[in-house]
Write a structure and sequence with these properties.
The protein has 472 residues and is α+β, with helices and mostly antiparallel strands. It contains 13 helices and 18 strands. The protein starts with 5 loop residues before the first strand and ends with a strand. It binds one DNA strand of 6 nucleotides through helix 9.
DNA sequence: ATGTAC
């Protein structure tokens, strides 16, 4: 049974472990194996895995788990990708989907969100009480207390405890490398979604029978309205990536390091440039988690405007799908890269944050526009893939091809425009978002089926969109 | 995904 969802592919430079059902495996672009072969030319690699939503990226595929030993390992900005710390966050509300049946109320809520959540960089003076230096050095712990409304008692400290990581240690030496304009722009981009597939969504959840106990332990109920956020580290992460990649490229030339792909950049963990990159990458992970936190803060304000002070929005979880860090597996320390891959730890795994020790933590998987997203939990079988599962649907058409091939009418139909159950969008033209139409992506349900079939994770809740807010 | 240069 299990082998139907797993293939070991032998390539000239090594092997890649592919988790995908037969149909998805057969449909993979041969280029994903070319990229795997290049990645496997980086020295000392211990493991490389692909998730069922794998697709071609720059230098490395989205859907990659790449692992080294800490002692003789390598770090690659190309494998992490340029949206460092990009990830997902879900908040639970005390609303039921029936309370949002009226399309006019959904419109009102989206309007309120647009008022509090800036779509572009905001003007000077906004968040002037937040110090960017504290944010990138200390993550959520660098925010003034007023932005952590539920942090005053240990039991209710959900914003700080229900996250994959609330703080990465950043000494700060390498921070001096960035020009003033990057600091300025990044401060003004705090709490903004950004473009592409990033979104904030109002969703209603459905709980399948098999994991009802876990759902209850997490506070999930049938028909409950949740807020899902998908965003990253904006210009800050992009600058880290660009700066470190260009320095590493020079070093690689000088030292004769490299693979068949000049765009695949890497350095030994022990090298000065490797250490600089890890520290700066951590600053971007800090930025990303704070960015998602502030987006949630804005949406909470909007919710209170529409539903009054009784509106609640507790944090279920915040986790990343573009990052690299040290992890223990079976007592050994590894340096694990995840690009478009989500960690999903099973029950009792020691790396679960305290509130999720017994059950495993929520693994959050976004769907494409108009389609469902998922809240999953890891299973012990995930160990074989270093506990990595998918990160979403996976693109099947480039942005340019999507704009050429998908009509606005097709896109509008998928968003049920004009129907009573229309998925309400914020004020942007449909034309400008056609490249995010579900027809540009694989079917997320099929991806999830592969993840479950392979024994990596299971579904705890399916989240259906009621309203979607996209950035600029 | 993103900023910037073409």
């Amino acid at each position: 049974m299990l082998q139907n969802y797993y293939q070991q592919v032998k390539l000239p430079s090594g092997q890649v472990h592919v988790y995908a059902g037969p149909e998805l495996f057969a449909a993979l672009d041969y280029k994903v194996f070319e990229l795997a072969n290049n990645n496997l030319q980086i020295p000392n690699q211990v493991y490389m895995g692909y998730t069922p939503d794998v697709h071609v990226g720059v230098g490395t595929c989205i859907g990659t788990t790449a692992v080294w030993n800490v002692e003789d390992g390598y770090v690659s900005p190309s494998i992490v990708g340029s949206d460092i710390g990009c990830g997902m966050r879900v908040h639970l509300t005390n609303l039921h989907k029936d309370e949002l049946k009226d399309v006019k109320l959904r419109r009102k809520l989206v309007k309120a969100i647009e008022k509090y959540l800036p779509m572009e960089e905001h003007g000077r003076g906004h968040f002037s009480d937040i110090r960017l230096e504290h944010v990138v050095k200390k993550g959520l712990h660098g925010l003034p207390k007023k932005y952590i409304p539920d942090a005053y008692t240990p039991r209710k400290a959900t914003s700080l405890t229900h996250v994959e990581s609330s703080k990465f240690y950043v000494e700060g030496g390498a921070l001096g490398l960035f020009p003033e304009r990057v600091w300025h722009r990044s401060h003004r981009q705090l709490g903004t979604l950004g473009g592409g597939n990033h979104f904030a969504e109002i969703q209603a959840i459905e709980i399948p029978e098999e994991n009802r106990e876990i759902a209850e332990a997490w506070g999930l109920t049938d028909g409950q309205v949740v807020i899902m956020i998908h965003s990253g580290s904006r210009a800050w992460g992009g600058s880290v990536s660009q700066y470190c990649s260009s320095n590493m490229t020079k070093m690689m030339k000088a030292e004769g390091l490299g693979t068949a792909d000049p765009k695949l950049v890497f350095a030994p963990l022990a090298h000065e440039l490797g250490k600089d990159y890890v520290e700066l990458m951590y600053s971007a992970l800090n930025y990303a988690v704070v960015n998602r936190h502030l987006i949630a803060y804005a949406i909470r304000e909007a919710g209170k405007d529409v539903f009054g002070s009784k509106f609640e929005m507790s944090t279920l979880y915040d986790l990343m799908h573009n990052y690299a860090w040290e992890e223990e597996h079976d007592g050994h320390s590894y340096f694990v890269h995840r690009k478009g891959a989500t960690r999903a730890l099973p029950a009792q795994h020691p790396d679960n944050p305290e509130p999720y020790k017994e059950t495993g933590h929520p693994a959050l998987i976004p769907g494409s526009m108009g389609s469902s997203s998922y809240i999953m939990v890891g299973k012990p079988g995930g160990r074989d893939n270093y506990h990595s599962i998918c990160h979403g649907a996976g693109r099947i058409r480039s942005r340019s091809a999507s704009k050429r091939l998908i009509t606005v009418e097709e896109f509008a139909a998928s968003m049920r425009v004009g129907m009573e159950d229309e998925i309400v969008l914020n004020q942007r033209s449909l034309e400008s978002m056609v490249d995010e139409s579900p027809q540009a992506y694989k079917d997320v349900d099929q991806i999830i089926e592969s993840v479950v079939g392979a024994g990596l994770a299971e579904v705890v809740a399916k989240c259906k969109p009621l309203a979607t807010v996209k950035g600029a």
